[in-house]
Structure formats: C-alpha cells, structure tokens
Fold this protein.
Amino acid sequence: MTQQVPSTEPELAGVRNFRDVGGLPTVDGRRVKQGVLFRSGHLAHATQEDAAFLASLGLHTIFDFRNAADQRLEGPDVTLPGVRNVNLPLTDPADGSEFWKMVRDGEIDELRAALSEGQAADRMITSYRTIIKERTAEHSHVLHAMAEDSVPALMHCAAGKDRAGLSIAVTLLALGVERDAIEADYLESNAAHRRYKVHRSSASEDAMSPEVMELLSPLFDARASYLAAAFETVEETWGSTDRYLTEGLGLTPAERERLREHLLD
C-alpha cells in the first residue's frame, strides 16, 4: 500500500528537482493521483536522509533515462530496498559527448562559437524532436510497465528537466492531462532550488562570468518552446496525439485505460 506523501515538498539535500506530479488536471475533469508519479534529477548524490525519504514513498520502479556517460560522470543511483531500477537511456553516450565536454571545459571563444546567436536553443529543440521521433520504444516500455504494475514510479535523468521532462510529458499526454498543465509542470524545473547546478572545470573567475552563464542558460533552462517543439513533432509525425499513442507507442485503448486507473483519481 502506498504511503501518504507529505503535503509540503521536501527539500532534498542531494537530489535536485524532485516533485510529485499529482494534482494535475485532465481534460475530462479528473486529476493525477498524489503519490504515484514522481520526477527528479539523478539520485547518485542522495544523502542518507534523502534515501530514507525516497524509500518512504513506496516506489515500485525508478526509470533512469541517463546514458552510460552520465552514469560515469555522476555515479550510479542510490539503492533503495525493494525498488526496481530500470535504465532506459534516451540519448546515445557518444552523441554530444564532445559538446558537453566543451560546456564543462571550453574557453569563452569556444562557447561563443558553439552557443551564441540562438545555437544553444536550436540544439535543445533538435534534441527534443529527436527523442520524440527516435525513442518511441523506450517511451512505450515506460507506459506499458506502468499500465501493468510499475507504480508508484519515479522518472529521472541527470537534471530531471529534458529527458525526464519529456517522459513525464508523454505520460501525461497518455493520461489526458491538459496541455497547459503539462507545460506548467515542465516549467517548474526553472525554480531556483530545482535548477541543475552548472559545473565548470576551471576555477577562474571567467569560468562562470555573466557572459558564460548567458551562453549556457539555454542548455539549462526549461523553455516552453522546447516542449512545444516536442508536441509539434508528435503532430507532424503521427498526425495526432491519439495516433502517436496507438501507432507510435503501441498503447491499446485497454492499456491506456489501465494506465488511467493506476494514475488518476
């Protein structure tokens, strides 16, 4: 039996961007249940107190969307007793590895050349579109697992913003949650206490200068335009959300109804 989740959001010391997705409204007047669907950044740096809180949630499954390069950089998730951890990378470790090394280590001239004049935001939009089009098997796996028994569930990537944000958005689409509510939840990742902490290898003052942070900000922002690009890709590729769910993700009406039974009040 799922334990009652505290009404106030916890401040976890070693886990960024944690939240319960419960309470979001559907187009037919229902709401996502409290205590069945959570999202966060990675769990590799969870403290003992963080782990005790996470263990109290009665989780069945943790979906980790990081790739092998992320896991090498950050470490494996903390182990929670009795919780299944499913790793479903939504990006290829080799894809962008040099780019993210440049983000961590690059000098200002390199950053200007790669990120200025809208290039950083364009990169994010391309990434969102690619994940929607090319990672249907992974998103299908998540929805089928939750339609069967894999709830309560927690979804996370590194920052809990992009890969986890898209997977949460896909899940909410399947539940019939209002688009405005999906976007509002996604944009919560911009809150100061949630944002991914940018790490730069240089200790010099210039490494985190205002110009550097402005160049990097599109990579670490949650922007409505990114999520809109994902939704546009669904429409452009499959013609409608329903066809995306049935043809793209292989979700039958019966499975979608089971998913709604598990996750909606």
About this structure: The mean pLDDT is 90. The first strand starts at residue 19 and ends at 20. The chain is about 50% helix and 5% strand. The domain at 19-263 is CATH 3.90.190.10 (Protein-Tyrosine Phosphatase; Chain A).
